[in-house]
TrEMBL record:
Pfam families linked: Flavin_Reduct (PF01613)
Keyword annotations from UniProtKB, A to Z: Flavoprotein, FMN
Protein name: Flavin reductase like domain-containing protein
Domain of life, per lineage: Bacteria
Family: Belongs to the flavoredoxin family.
Source organism: Achromobacter pestifer
Length: 222
């Protein structure tokens, strides 16, 4: 099936792309406007773009033809926090996605506990297993939408999720993080993991010489 996205309406493009590009991690963003009013909202157009320098990217859409509060706040203050969502926080995250009228504090509605950050003037979600303090590196406007590239200047990890402090290993399965699937409102949790080390050129060439290359290519990983 060939699909020419240029011929489709926006909602149809969204439906297809979000069904195919999965799972997507959830950025539970805390932001503040110039007057200090706090906003909490989740976004799934989000991912890590670089480890060194540490950069994340978030795509923020529009509402009623205008930038969402999160995009407006980030543009004003150039800082925000990204908080990851564990399964036990799913309901609270979902409530913060409600289209509340202006002036309603989503953190109060959802019972979200905010804690001060160390490097930025925007709080983080204390219940979140991992939180990132971010400063805007570059802000792009594309057809009214905001594409935020940000430096991660600090992170917070709950102590029980640190598997090895010396080697900076985190306990991924124990985080029990949620990720977004297709609409309407489908999410997933981590499945049993498998390890597949990166091959060197020498290893791959050795497999081809020994006749093991085809077997390696067909090996199922589940």
């Amino acid at each position: 099936m060939f699909i020419d996205l240029d011929t489709l309406a926006g909602p149809d493009r969204y439906k297809l792309l979000t069904a195919a590009i999965v799972p997507r991690p959830i950025a539970w963003i805390v932001s503040r406007d110039a007057q200090g009013v706090t906003n909490v909202a989740p976004f799934s157009f989000f991912n890590l773009m670089s480890g060194d320098p540490p950069l994340i990217c978030v795509g923020i859409g529009m509402r009623d033809g205008a930038p969402k509060d999160t995009a407006h706040n980030i543009a004003e203050r150039s800082e925000f926090t990204v908080n990851l969502v564990s399964a036990r926080l799913a309901g609270r995250m979902n409530v913060t996605a409600v289209d509340f009228p202006a002036g309603v504090d989503e953190s109060v509605e959802a019972g979200v506990v905010l804690a001060p950050s160390e490097r930025v003037g925007v709080p983080r979600v204390m219940q979140s297993p991992v939180a990132f303090e971010c400063r805007v590196h570059e802000l792009l406007r594309i057809d009214g939408r905001s594409l935020v590239v940000a430096d991660v200047v600090a992170m917070h990890v709950q102590d029980e999720l640190v598997a090895d402090r010396e080697h900076l290993y985190l306990d991924g399965p124990k985080m029990d993080l949620l990720a977004r699937l297709h609409n309407p409102g489908w999410y997933c949790r981590p499945q049993p993991a498998f390890q597949m080390p990166q091959l060197s050129l020498a290893q791959w060439e050795a497999m081809k010489r020994s006749g093991d290359a085809d077997r390696y290519l067909e090996k199922p990983y589940r």
